[in-house]
Every structure is written in C-alpha cells, then in structure tokens.
Amino acid sequence: MLLVRGERANESVAPYIALVALVLFPFLLFIDIHRFETRSALPSNVQLLYVFAGASHVLLVLSALPALALRSPRVSGGSPLAGSLLALHLISFISALMILAAVTMIDRGNFLRLSALLMTVNFVYILHWRVRAAVNLFAFLSGIVVMVTFVTLAAVKTTEPQNFIEEFMGFSGILTVIALSVIGGAIVHRDRTEGFIAQYHESLSLARLQREIRIAAQLQQSLLPAPWPTTDGYAVQGLMRPAQDVGGDFYDHFHVQDGAACLVVADVCGKGIPAGLFAMSAKSTIFATTLQFNRVVATQDPAILMVDVNNLLHEGNTDMLFVTAVYGHYQPASGRLIFVNAGHVQPLLLPNLGPAQWLDAPKGCALGVRSGQSYKSAEIELQAGDTVLFISDGVTEALNPDFEEFGSARVKSALEGIAYEAPAQCIQRLLAALDVFTERVAQSDDITCLALCHQPTRSSLES
C-alpha cells in the first residue's frame, strides 16, 4: 500500500513539478550563459563543473515533458504508458537535482546542502509525511528569511549591474532551495491527499465486503433445514455455530420416496467463504444425488450413494477441497438406521436404556479427495426413545484457555443419563457443557450437531 500510495502521489504531482522546472529554466539559463561568458578563463576542471550544472538544467526541462504528458487522458489511470512516463520523469528529475546539488555544494555550498537534504527526504516514501512536512517547512521559512535578507542587502550595496549579477548568482542557490521546498510541500500534500483517497476507497471496499459476507452468512443459515415437526415416529433437531461469519460445516435432513429420512452432517476443510461455498456445493450434490439414486436404485445402502457423491465432488476440484461427512438412511417405521462415515466423527448413540456409546462404522476417505473410492456402511436398529447424535470435530476439538481439547470422552459424559429427552434438549445440554469447558474462548472451528430421536416419549414431545 505504501508503494502504491507513493506512485499515485508522484504521478499526480509530476505535472506541477514540471511547471516549476519550466518557470525556473529562464533563470537557470541566464545563470549558465553568464557563467560561460565571464568565467572562460577559469581552470578546465571548474569549467567542467559548470558544464555539469548546465546539463542538470537541461535534464530538468526534459523531465518536464513526460510529466506534462501524464495530464493527458490517454495515458492516465494507471496505464503501462503512464508508468513508463512517470519513471522517465523521476529518473530525469532526480538525476538533475543530484547533479545540481553536487555542483553547488562543490562550488557554492552555503544553501544547496539543505536542498540536497530536502530532495532526499521528499523522495523517500518510507519516512512519515509529518517528518517530510517539517523539513519542507524549515527549508521554506529559511529560504524566505535568506531571500528577504539578500534583497535588502542588494538594495543597499548594489550600485552597478555587474555587481547585481554577481549577487544574483549567489541568489540562485536560495531560489533553488525555495523551489525545492515548494515541490516538496506539493508532494507531501498530494501524498496525504492520495493517501486519504486510497484509504476512503479501501473503507468503501471493506464495508461492501463486510456487507456481502453478512449476506452470505444469512443465506447460508437460511439454506440449513428447519426442524421437522415432532411426531410420534421421530424428532430431528440440528444446529450449526460457525467459527467465522461463513462456516464450512453443514447439516441436512430430507425425505425420499420410500418414506425414509436422510440425515447428513458434514465438515469442509478450512473455514470462511471458500469453505462455505464448497459446503453448499456438497450439500446440493448430496441432495440431488440422493433423489436420483432413490428413483433408479432399489437398494437402500448409502455406501453406493457416497461413491457417486465423491466422484462428483472430485470433478473440477482444482483447489483440492474436501469434506468429511456422515450420511444416514433412517426408516421411521422400523427404527432401522443405515449410515456411512466418510472420514467424519462417529455418531453417538444415547439409548433409552443403557450407557451412551460411540457407534462403530468403517471410516472411508473424505469426499472429493480422489475419485474411485469405495465406502462401507453400518446398520443399527433404534429402540423407542433412542437418540443418535451426529457432530462435527468442532465439538471434540474445542479448546479451553489451557489449550486442552474437549474430546470425545467429555462429549459422552456430558450426555450420560439422558432418557426420554427431546433432540433440542440433547444439543442444548452438549453446548452448555462445551461453553463451560471452553470458558467462552473464541471458536477455532465450526460446531455442528444433528440429533435424531426414534419414537420419542410424550414427555419429550411436550418439552
């Protein structure tokens, strides 16, 4: 940003520098002519010094040409030609000033040491603008004081034109200091102006980006399914708490033609907008593939379905994103749950009678990593009041202030002893235990839960 701001400031102030150089040129030309006419008898090394001084004056004029061209609409707006013209102007202008400063310091070093310092300060953009402004102000005020002093002395002491010309030759150094301070002040002013403009545009872009992220987060939440109405057959409740505005986790549940309910909990690698976009793509792919699969295939094995989903997500996945998921096929009438695990956290069974236990299913490869993967499913018969909890690793890997993970054992113990409880209460109890453990430490990953209760009791329905 510092380099861009400096380039914009240089480009905007270059035409004004060119005008200053053109205004100074007649005075400098007069000085050069007078030197060559009156000092031809000087040693050759001194004459060579004046030749360099004249060359620096020519370079100043030449630097004005590309600078004035920057005002043309054809080359403005950051075009490559504008960059080339700006580089040519700066090289010519700075070279001329360096030669002029060196010559004057050798021949008449009273004032140009200050101008050399000023020139260096103004073109070193790593320095804060206040530092450059202070140096410019000091040079400008010093130049005015010396100029007023010279004019007063010249009016008193100078009686002949020749003496006035000699005094004017000394005054040329003062004139250069003033010109350079004016140029430096213009650079500082334009630098600040361009900086404020760039900062304003950055703030607008940031506000627009934040608005778009907020809309994306709202859209993502709206695409997550609402809870199904609780019936005597089963109850389902889901929740996704993103670590950032847009999360990479998602859950889904939907019906298919045979009356079964399909349940999905998934976690995309990474966080933020890229993960959120891939999550929505994966969600749509699973949904569409399931509906097509259910129409043409008689079997209910979701392992076959996951093969097609994996191949579809792998196609065109140049960024090598992937998603872990647990997909379940649930029959409300019989309580039969067939599920497949694609590199995800195992589901947790909370039976109506008995201790909680992690369901054991073969873990396949995450979806989208590579094509041609095979998957194996597992099956369980749910009894009345049994609850199955699907979670993402944002739950098990949540950290407390001591950087300890919540872990699968704490998930299990937090839900031990729950009987005849609604899925919403199951999720709330888990999240409450999680918040106590983490002490509200900022999330490092998205947290997603989906609970399915088979034939919930009347008390849980009322709760």
Give a description of the structure.
With 463 residues, the chain is of the alpha+beta class. It has helices at residues 2-38, 44-69, 80-107, 112-122, 129-157, 161-223, 272-296, 302-314, 393-396, 407-414, 423-438, 458-462; strands at 234-241, 249-255, 261-268, 323-331, 336-342, 348-350, 357-358, 377-381, 387-391, 447-454. The strands form 2 sheets. It has a 5-stranded antiparallel sheet. The chain has a 5-stranded antiparallel sheet with strand order 2-3-4-5-8, with helices on one face. A hairpin with a 4-residue loop joins β4 and β5. The longest helix is centred in the middle third of the chain and has 63 residues, at 161-223. It starts with a helix and ends with a helix.
How much of the sequence is in beta strands? 5-15%
CATH homology superfamily of the largest domain: PPM-type phosphatase domain
H-E string: HHHHHHEEEHHEEEEEEHHHEH
How many helices? The count is 12
* Sheet/helix structural class: alpha+beta
Shape: elongated
How much helicity do the residues have?
55-70%
Largest sheet: 5 strands, antiparallel
Instruction: Give the low-confidence spans.
Output: 459-463
Mean pLDDT: 76
Fill in the CATH topology of the largest domain: Phosphatase 2c, domain 1
| Span of the ends, CA to CA | 57 Å
CATH class of the largest domain: Alpha Beta
- Order of strands across the main sheet: 1-10-9-6-7
- Counted beta strands: 10
Radius of gyration: 39 Å
CATH architectural arrangement of the largest domain: 4-Layer Sandwich
Total number of domains: 2
